[in-house]
Amino acid sequence: MKPANTLLSQTGTTIFTIMSALAVRHGAINLGQGFPDTEGPADIVHQAADALLDHRNQYPPLTGLPELREAVAAANKRFYGLDIDATSGVVVTSGATEAITACLMALINPGDEVVLIEPLYDTYLPVVKLLGGVARLVRLEPPAWELPREALAAAFGPKTKLLLLNSPMNPTGKVFTPEELGFIAGLLLKHDAYAVCDEVYEHLVFSGAKHIPLMTLPGMAERSLRIGSAGKTFSLTGWKVGYVSGPAALMGLVAKAHQNLTFTTAPNLQRAVAYGLAKPDEYFATLADELQLRRDLLDTGLKRLGFITLPAQGSYFITADFSALGFTGDDMEFCRMLPEQAGVAAIPVSAFYVETPPRHYVRFAFCKQPAVLEAALERLARWTAAKALTVSA
Ligand code: PMP
Ligand code: GLN
Asked: What per-residue confidence (pLDDT) applies to 341?
């Protein structure tokens, strides 16, 4: 038989699925894959349930239901002062995952160069490659996750088509600063390149950090595509409703890509998300405040156990250095051992790098009920005590 698609046959199962399966097998508390362990707001779920029963279950319009497109445009205005046209400037997708692929399809011709920042989310690179794009990787390194400006500038050239930017960033929890965004914007203008902005964690920002869409910077509105996810904003990750906002000239192409990927997204979920996006500011502030408390709970507990945690200003995740625990294997070994031995699952940070990754950092998700986080910390404490690992202060 002829070989099937080589790129996909070389792509492994996602690390999130691997670690969730290990968590299930060992009855571990899953602080690996990033999903909340409680339902999203009951009123939004009721909206979706009611919407199933009022005879609007056939194909919604290709670019999304008007009420959701209008809600996305209104949210762009309310939170960031952005003027997005609800008709020509928004496309609703089946999750941010589809949105990322649709945006990359809209922009990349084979041979185009795409600047990606490591550690990077697992779908970016395979999709860039499938489209014939050539990845130019720039690395952020723990513990500071500082933007290496020289390396970033060097990654741009005449063939650069776009930069894919994830802020707030998974797995680092980094929220890009206005200065960093300004530097990036300068490079995009200099090289006449586009930005695909994965902003799924836009409302999950803590400790006074502020999420600024790159699109709000001068000259960026006409060259940026901004991606949001109802899964993250409403703690309903299984719904897979995403949305792209951008200039009409590009959004027509995003719509064509979406037409060829899924064409449309479940209408009842779209209607419920439209309702959710219109919630008062207080909803969005409380979402972040509650998550911040959970971040602090996990962070303090991990530090007490001897992990060195890195500051997380946004997202669902804390990165923790386990080298002071006395475990001598790498992060993959650590994460394969942890569910069975400690009853807790995490994600190895090396999975977010292509080559020569850092090897002693793991990612813990804190989007869990406080009692669950406490239980996970207790299990980790029992495990470290039983192993008599050396814990440095
Ligand atoms: N981008 C990033 C950075 C993510 O962490 C995730 C994971 N949830 C996604 C995109 C995918 O979002 P969705 O579930 O809406 O497809
Ligand atoms: N975004 C989630 C995470 O980083 C995982 C989503 C998935 O499993 N594909 O944990």
From this structure: 96
